[in-house]
């Protein structure tokens, strides 16, 4: 019996692979390597001493997926595969709707034929949209997404909700991630964006490494404690552990349930920059730049539902996030 991780060589998938193997699960990874490298499988093996089975496969390709389900007894799927660059989703929306929706629907169809009934989905706090008030709670209305990427998450949540309503055997867990940062303490796996990073932490680490001459802080006139944006940064290893709990939950419960995976605390962009400098003893040159289009002032989770129903709570703080992110960056080839 195995757990399938689509997108399992990516940033969050690879950390979850490690935690699942450590928890005793047999896993199979399917990834088309559009945003990751096959060498991640070697790193997962180095960390866990167990090599996951790997298929270089596109989750939108039904025949390739059927082969994976034929060759393995898959009891649950964690669906990480998808495109995630917000800016690119604005300039190339069709590419995003095609890949993100198609992969989810194809997976659901193949799972149904194979009698596999547990689906854990990588959703995002972005589904709360532009008008929501913090802290975000799972029962709040969703929608008014700021970009096509967010809409794909919103739509897939709806598709999975409907699928679970129609099939009494199906168990769906929608995980709304907040801002994952950091890396595995080994420094072997982490976030390695292609080209200029969009997200804050990889931009900080690349500035620290001398690859960028300064960080632009997008806006210092928000209604926050220091004027910069506030986010719920969560260590990727904590996030990965949340998936182990979500899988246990899906195994015991039917229907569709949604959980925030965040720490419940918001920190500002400058909190993160200052902590990074302090913990790692490195100066990060930064300049205040205009607000970035589409950004909101503040986003953080109400994290009580995951604590009560999953028995999961983030353990690691900003210091560990900054230390581990830099440790990974220094190891990057
Ligand atoms: P990532 O890009 O590192 O990983 C995604 C993986 O999916 C990549 O390895 C890529 O090669 C693969 N992939 C993409 N399309 C595929 C397809 N059609 N078939 C097979 N493989 C495919 O991204 P990540 O940060 O690990 O994110 C994982 C999931 O979590 C994504 O769905 C993302 O939208 C979601 N998410 C991420 C964040 C974040 O800040 N990183 C926040 C909220 C939600
Ligand atoms: N940010 C920034 N400079 C950067 C990248 C991001 O000031 O180079 C800010 C951004 O405006 C937001 C926060 O950092 O307030 C988190 O942005 P990120 O893109 O990492 O995640 P988001 O919350 O947008 O998903």
Short description:
The chain has about 325 residues and is α/β, with parallel strands linked by helices.
Residue share in helix: 40-55%
End-to-end separation: 35 Å
Instruction: Describe the global form.
Output: globular
Contiguous runs where pLDDT drops below 50 for at least 5 residues: none
Biggest sheet, spatial arrangement of strands = 3-2-1-4-5-6-11
Count of alpha/pi helices: 11
Order of helices and strands: EHEHEHEHHEHEEHEEEHEEHEHH
- Mean of pLDDT: 97
Bound molecules: nicotinamide-adenine-dinucleotide, uridine-5'-diphosphate
Structural class: alpha/beta
Rounded radius of gyration (Å): 19 Å
What proportion of the residues form beta strands (DSSP E)? 15-25%
Give a short account of the largest sheet: 7 strands, parallel
Total strand segments: 13
What would you note in describing this structure?
The protein is α/β, with parallel strands linked by helices and 333 residues long. Helix content is 41%, strand content 18%. The protein is built from 11 helices and 13 strands. Strands 3-2-1-4-5-6-11 form a 7-stranded parallel beta sheet, with helices on both faces. Helix 6 links the parallel strand 5 (118-124) and strand 6. It starts with a strand and ends with a helix. The model has no long low-confidence stretch (mean pLDDT 97). Nicotinamide-adenine-dinucleotide (NAD) binds next to helix 1, helix 5 and strand 5.
List the helices and strands and how they pair.
Elements: E1 2-6, H1 11-22, E2 27-31, H2 39-48, E3 53-56, H3 62-71, E4 74-79, H4 86-91, H5 93-114, E5 118-124, H6 148-166, E6 171-177, E7 179-181, H7 200-208, E8 215-218, E9 230-231, E10 233-235, H8 236-252, E11 255-261, E12 267-268, H9 269-280, E13 286-289, H10 304-310, H11 318-331
Helix pairs in contact: 1-2, 1-8, 3-5, 5-6, 7-11, 9-11
Nicotinamide-adenine-dinucleotide binds at residues 6-7, 9-13, 31-36, 58-60, 80-82, 84, 99, 103, 122, 124, 177, 180.
